[in-house]
Predict the 3D structure of the following.
Amino acid sequence: MKKCVLVVEDEPDLRRLFGIMLSGAGYDVVDAPSGERAIEIVKESLPDAMLLDLRMPGVDGWEVLARLKKEELLESIPVIVISAHTGGDTAAAAERSGASDYLAKPVDREQLLSAIARVV
Amino acid sequence: MNDDRASVLLVDDRPNNLLALDSILQPLDLNIIKAASGEEALKILLKHDIEVILLDVQMPGLDGFQTAAEIKKRAKTRDIPIIFLTAISREPHQALRGYSTGAVDYISKPFDPWILKAKVTLFIDLCRKNTLLKHQSDLLASRLRKLEQEVTERKLAEAALRRKTAIVELVKTVAVAANEASDIEGAMQTTVDAVCSYNGWPVGHVYLNDPSHGHLVSMGIWHLDDPERYSSFKKLTEAGGKLEGLGPAGAARASGQLEWITDVTQDPAFSRAQEAGAAGLRSGFAFPLLVEQEVVGVFEFFAQHHAARDESFQDVIAPLATQLGHAVQRKRIEQELRRLDVAKTEFIGNAAHELRTPLSVLTGVTQILVKQHRKLSVKERDEMFAMMDRQSERMRTLINNLLDITGMDFGRLKIDLRPVPLREAVESALAANPPPDGWDVGTDVPEDLKVIADDARLDQVFTNLIQNAFKYGSEKLRIEARATTKDVRVSVCNLGAPVPPELVGGLFDPFTRGEHQAARGSGLGLTICKRIIEAFGGSIWYEPNESGGSRFEIRLSKP
């Protein structure tokens, strides 16, 4: 059975792009354009992993992460966060918040696929 | 009569007697003037300077004594010696007693020529000595006056010098403070203290002119000789009040000049009159702190006494205000530079961030096309190309905008101002930017209306506003224009959600941008619009539309 990945990204082209990269590598892909939608969808689809943009309007990636970690059912879903900030501070903060891995924009396809492969 | 000979007046009604007197006096080499009556003698005395008068006592008309009485009445002739000529049988001594000075004598007829000559010579000598004495005394008096005047002048000069020195000291103190004080407040405190110590006034205070609220606000900077005495006056001042109640300070703010009020307690335009009176304050003056013609602050001073308006204060105050003005201006420039530096750093950061998104997409697309093109469906491949097209276009626009903005920042916005037909400009921008499906687009622009603008740049503004309306608004777009007496107003308004209140303040700043799911803007469009419109000499502002949505108002000049 194919593993399912949820892509949360507000920029439509990037969202679609991550989708194509992942589906090309054999994953089922669901996506959400915002933090609010992500929280709804994650409960419906219970994905095997989540690719999460940290910087989004409204409910941002940090808040999504915080909410997931509060719920027993969702808490174990591995989350790979994406950020435009390349500083080590962001990576460390993401790890403290429960993220499994950290990718900097622009995201390299190989890195993305190997990061996902490591957690599913 | 310019010769040096003494003038003698002979008065007798009998020509023979006059002739006889003349011949007796001839050897003395005198200027002899003759009069045949008392009346004639008085007339001659009006015109001539006479040193001795020989006066016959017995004459018809005015007799000798009456004539002498007239002569003694007049200041000019009072001191001229008179020798009465009397008949021998008479006793003139009684008549002569009335005359106090020794300058009166008599001689009895028939007179001895030698005695007559001796008496005349004696009196002339006496008169000349008197004149000399008087002259010397006058000279002495005039020298004394001159000396007194010189002393007075010297004293005044010394006072002026002391005053000038004090002013120089005052200006120097303030100049040093203005240059060295790390804050403007410090320099102002020094100024208030220095002015109070210069003119000996007990109360000085500084107001800040707050242009955004249109009134003066106490800066809390005071000089008070006796803080306890003025505490309630100070408290009232700092509590603030209406501008019209500020007395001299309010007047100085309005006029931009030194303003003086001899008695502030009698000034109906001074709301603190009662407290000022209670603290014993009477006169007040204020002067504005000007920076490039703008009143940035006002200094006010109060005295315990009635002081008449002193124009010379202007000479004292003007250089102080100039020094402080420079300091304030320098401070402002420093702050502006710091602000610009922060803004520039922020701008670069934002620009890099904005460029990263299209770059991320383009990198991703490239990697997919290189690494997994065999697995792509036709639909996916078309999507990839569409993304490349879209994101490279976005990058191009962003870079153009960035270049525009930085060019404008350095004042390099190239514009060619000329009358532009407004209706054509609006219609051409609308034609180039067709509305999404379902939009109702309408214009109301008078056909002959022209504005001063650069047509290509004006098109850029309309394009930006129209695209924003389609991006952030819904259903309906209206572009309307009308001429007012002074200028032309254009409004671009759309229905839908208004600009969120938190964005309105910085709406025209770079990278302020509405969130939109499908099409995020660069956040530079309105900044560019504003700079362009301002380069036209116009202005642009935002207001929420009454029926929902947004309204951008533009003011442009008429040709």
User: Anything to note?
Assistant: The first strand of chain B starts at residue 7 and ends at 11. Chain B touches chain A at residues 353, 356-357, 359-361, 363-365, 367-368, 371-372, 375-376, 380, 383-384, 387, 390-391, 515, 517-518, 520 (CB under 8 Å). The first helix of chain B runs from residue 15 to 25.
